[in-house]
Amino acid sequence: MASLYTKTKLYLEANSQTWNDTKVSLQDNTDGNGAFIASWTYDIAEPTTEQLANYESAGNAQELLESNLIKRVYPSIGDQLDMLWHSIDQNPTLKSQYFAFYEAIKSVKVKNPK
Prior knowledge:
The protein is mainly alpha-helical. The chain is 56% helix and 10% strand. It folds into two domains: 4-71; 77-111, no CATH class. Strand 1 (24-28) and strand 2 (35-40) form a beta hairpin. The mean pLDDT is 93.
């Protein structure tokens, strides 16, 4: 279930607005009734529960995307280049295809061994 924050943010974006903590605040009294909009000072109408419900699917998709992006951690550029180097170094076909890259890196490695 998409959060009230996400659905409200999508509502704002659909109405050419951006989230601004000074114009909207959300609150949850932990009384079992869930989160609600505690204050709203945008110059567009505060969304109704029904309007926010229309953003449930889009909100779920947005939250899933954000969750996946947080998990997507790539190796550093240096590590990626090192992997590329080793792949090329071990494959004669790739050496010929990436000759300039291979030779440039090889000359640095030969001049500066570990």
